[in-house]
Amino acid sequence: MIIKNGTIVDPSQGMEEIGTVYIRNNRIEKVVPGDYVPSDEEKEEDILDAAGKYVMPGLIDLHVHFRDPGQTYKEDIGTGAAAAAAGGVTTVCAMPNTVPAVDCVETLKYVQEKAKSSASIRVEQVSAITLGEKGDTLVDIPAMKEAGAVAFSEDGKSVMDTLVFREGLKKIAEAGGVVMSHCEDRDLVNGGVMNAGPKQEELGYPGITNAVEDVIAARDIFMAAEQGARLHLCHCSTKGTVELMRMAKRLGYDVTAEVCPHHFTLTETNIPGDEGNYKMNPPLRSEEDVQALIGGLADGTMDVISTDHAPHGEEEKQKGFQSPFGIVGLETSAALTFTALVAPGLISMSRMVELMSTNPAKVIRMDAERGTLRAGALADVTVFDPNVVWTVDPGQFRSKGRNTPFAGKTLVGRVTATICDGQVVYQI
Length: 428
Hints:
Layout: E1 2-10, E2 15-24, E3 27-33, E4 47-49, E5 54-57, E6 59-64, H1 77-86, E7 89-94, H2 105-118, E8 122-125, H3 141-146, E9 152-153, H4 162-175, E10 178-181, H5 186-189, E11 194-195, H6 198-203, E12 207-208, H7 210-227, E13 230-233, H8 239-250, E14 255-259, H9 261-265, H10 287-299, E15 304-305, H11 333-342, H12 349-363, E16 381-391, E17 410-420, E18 423-427
Parallel strand pairs: 1-4, 1-5, 6-7, 7-8, 9-10, 10-13, 11-12, 13-14, 14-15
Antiparallel strand pairs: 1-2, 2-3, 5-16, 16-17, 17-18
Helix pairs in contact: 7-8
């Protein structure tokens, strides 16, 4: 397969120039800068013309919920993978808060086998840290790592028992794993459903303060450093967490952090009323928090953009702020990032690719073969057209979930082709 005439953006090689990507035997064979030079051996059906578009390493989403096993009416591995492909994502990390939780090798193998049979992209599975995500007994960490768990997380909550968490950090460090932390002090939440602020006061719901996230982010950063564990902070939403990340990097700690598109594009003031599609955890914060997150993404403090793709049934999200937390995001994340950050000049296209592909590959230590277009890497490629203007229509989503606050929003830029393992898995 040949992808010609596109602007190749690959931060792993410091590359942003027009060129041609050659794929052979499901690997990147070579990338040739400059104008495409045809060969007699090439067949027209094997050529994808990317003129006027960006060609980049396949996007990697470190944080998705595919609801499989146990809640496949919300999403399953096949539909989740199709949604990912439509968003230019070729690798996802599925969180373990399924039913049952992914806390043993048997359940991990179930996901791996189902992904092989039904997923069009690469589905990596994250292991729970404690059995049943109950927070008291650690999973068999070496066995889960050996069986292929790509990381360890209690996503949906924090491990609140500090001693249990410390022992988990120690064992995960010994196994060479990474901890993905959902930073939330369960006691401080105290029934909160939205950011503590003017909108919460207007609607009369209990609020969630910034400290709910900040105190656990600080705890996890210092504890991980003490145990020599690699730490990745999930779905950061506050200015405090951005400052904590600056501190951690200044101290040389092995910690990375992600931000979701909804947290850098929306504030609590965008909530139209008691509307369930604006309820997510962490909640939409203040303008000050949003600006801090954007600044952190721009200056390198924050490392990754992930979606926290969290599908729910339509009826579930019709209960306003009494509905479950979470929104879908796989099919809009690249366009939202381009529209909100690249088009206005807040970050470069190269930085967008770094945040959505190069750096995520490093977090899960797969950067030798993913998040890059180097010769020999896996042939995972995303083609993105910066000139397409389109309107978000949840009815067209590949995901089973329709729960998005971006319905009807006009975006600039769209994924037009996704290649995974050398095969076109999505194209418009």
